[in-house]
Design a protein that fits this description.
The complex is a heterodimer of chains A (219) and B (285). By secondary structure, chain A is mainly α. Helices cover 79% and strands 0% of the residues of chain A. The radius of gyration of chain A is 21 Å and the shape is flat. The model of chain A has no long low-confidence stretch (mean pLDDT 90). Chain B has 2 domains: 139 residues, Periplasmic binding protein-like II (D-Maltodextrin-Binding Protein, domain 2); 94 residues, 3-Layer(aba) Sandwich (D-Maltodextrin-Binding Protein, domain 2), CATH 3.40.190.10. Classes of the chains: A mainly alpha (219), B alpha/beta (285). At the A-B interface, helix 7 and helix 8 of A face helix 1, helix 4, helix 5, helix 6 and strand 10 of B.
Chain lengths: 219, 285
């Protein structure tokens, strides 16, 4: 283990971490939006859109991210839709994450007892008010653990971005090994940097989980 | 309180884990002379030799439509297997992982169009060369790059990680933006899709690419230094290295590599490149 080598590689890893975080968090943000929308559409059985959302979720949950990225990056330009590698990365991650988030939110919504809706309606709330003020807050609280697990999963999935030439952490490590053959240093840094990204997420995630455990009172 | 203790324990455990990985690292470096590799006798005894080749670099190492390994490197590999009297287990490698495969003893020989360089020779042992190579740059017909000074600040050149083209450009042209891919297949697809103004690689590879794909021109066919391509073994595997060197010299007497060229490369390069590319008997003219 050569510490000078490690120090000289740090700026490159830092740059890669920033790229990983940038694409990762943008992807996560969009996947939350997509997932939330799909879950609501599916649960409240919005006509037409419901079928589309179901098709989308099954398509992206049952194909690997690597395949999706290859398709976006290498196949789409051939039919006239060229895309930047970064755009492909964000899009791929958002679509994959959206499908997983949709399932997480849907299970949350379904876990809210139907008596809650009935009670809200009998108190004179409109259906819409009941969904916004009674159902969704509880549903979100219930889906937090699955939601945090998905965030960690998505951040880890960024390691396949090297396939479309994005200089993320994984690719930086592989590239440096190819250039200078310092395998042990490069791979140790790789592990360390992924932990720097992911440990805080999992610690903050479990804190949030604890704070938000307010659904389903009366148990 | 209990939760906090548990969390601290978790963090400490991860720190220990990292320390463990680092520890293992330094230990491994100390006894790098241990036997990660298999000697000639061990290979013969097992009846199988593991050879690392490319699976996507036509016409040197590739898998044909029947799933069989073919190409200039593979033709030589087949002969090695036959002369050793063992069966061959091909291991498909990427450019950037060739060294690691040897360092970890996952293959006995790398025959993946491996250019001999000083840096590489410090970590693996090269046998005698069997091919000449330099770098080349291929570009689109509508904007042929004939000199690297034509590369603008916003232009990108495609390279494959772990190749001599990458090392050369990083070292000598640090201002040129590189678009890096980890496999030949990915680099090819991206270049065909219009990514990058040019693709820098071994000149043999870019000439072959332009010959097969219309719309591309090799504007620079000789860049960097004149290098050679040779088989590589794990550092210190002297018995296998000696055998390979004897084999290459012996094969020179029957003009084996000329025959190899005529069987595998002539369709791509024609006969005019035969003497430029082939190194016979390990002697560079």
């Amino acid at each position: 283990m050569d510490w000078d080598v490690i120090i000289s590689y740090l700026p490159l890893y830092k740059r890669a971490m920033i790229l990983t975080l940038k694409i990762g968090w943008m992807g996560i943000l969009f996947s939350v939006l997509i997932g939330f929308l799909c879950a609501v559409i599916r649960h409240y059985r919005v006509p037409v859109l419901r079928g589309l959302a179901g098709f989308y979720i099954e398509l992206f949950r049952n194909t690997p991210l690597l395949v999706q990225l290859f398709f976006l990056y290498f196949a789409l330009p051939r039919v006239g839709i060229p895309m930047d590698a970064e755009v492909c990365g964000v899009l791929g991650l958002s679509l994959l994450g959206g499908a997983y988030m949709a399932e997480a939110f849907r299970s949350g919504i379904e876990a809210v007892d139907s008596v809650q809706m009935e009670s809200a309606l009998s108190l004179g709330m409109t259906r819409w008010q009941a969904v916004i003020h009674v159902i969704l807050p509880q549903a979100i609280s219930i889906s937090v653990p699955a939601f945090v697990a998905n965030i960690i999963f998505l951040l880890k999935e960024t390691s396949v971005f090297s396939a479309i030439s994005l200089m993320d952490l994984m690719f930086t490590a592989k590239d440096l090994i190819g250039l200078y053959y310092r395998t042990v240093e490069c791979l140790s840094l790789l592990v360390a940097f992924y932990l720097i990204i992911l440990l805080p997420v999992s610690v903050i995630g479990s804190l949030v989980e604890r704070r938000m455990r307010y659904a389903g009172f009366g148990d | 309180m209990k939760r906090n203790t548990r969390r601290i324990a978790a963090v400490l455990l991860s720190v220990l884990l990292i320390a463990g990985i680092f520890g293992c690292g330094s230990k491994k470096e100390e006894d790098a002379s241990g036997d990660v590799f298999r000697t000639l006798d061990e290979i013969k005894e097992s009846g199988v030799i593991r050879i690392g080749v490319f699976s996507d670099k036509s016409p040197f190492g590739f898998v044909d439509e029947n799933g069989i390994y073919q190409g200039y490197d593979v033709y030589f590999a087949e002969r090695i297997g036959a002369d050793l009297g063992v069966t061959i287990e091909y291991v498909s490698t990427e450019a950037a992982s060739r060294i690691e495969y040897l360092e970890t003893g996952k293959v006995d020989i790398i025959l993946a169009n491996f250019t001999v360089t000083e840096e590489r020779a410090q970590v693996v042992d090269f046998a005698l060369p069997y091919m000449n190579v330099a770098l080349g740059v291929v570009s689109h017909d509508d904007r042929v790059i004939t000199d690297l000074s034509q590369i603008g600040a916003d232009d990108q050149i495609i390279v494959i990680t772990g190749t001599t083209a990458e090392t050369f450009l990083v070292k000598n042209y640090p201002d040129i933006q590189l678009q890096k891919f980890d496999t030949y297949a990915a680099a090819k697809s991206a270049f065909e899709n219009g990514t990058g103004v040019a693709w820098a690689n071994d000149n043999t590879e870019v000439i072959a690419f332009a010959a097969v794909n219309p719309g591309y021109t090799v504007g620079i066919d000789f860049l960097g230094s004149a290098d050679t391509i040779a088989p590589a073994v794990t550092k210190g595997n002297q018995t296998l290295l000696d055998w390979l060197n004897d084999e290459i010299v012996a094969l020179g007497e029957e003009n084996f590599f000329h025959k190899d060229y005529e069987e595998t490369l002539v369709d791509t390069y024609g006969l005019e490149f035969e003497d430029t590319l082939v190194v016979e008997g390990g002697v560079v003219k």
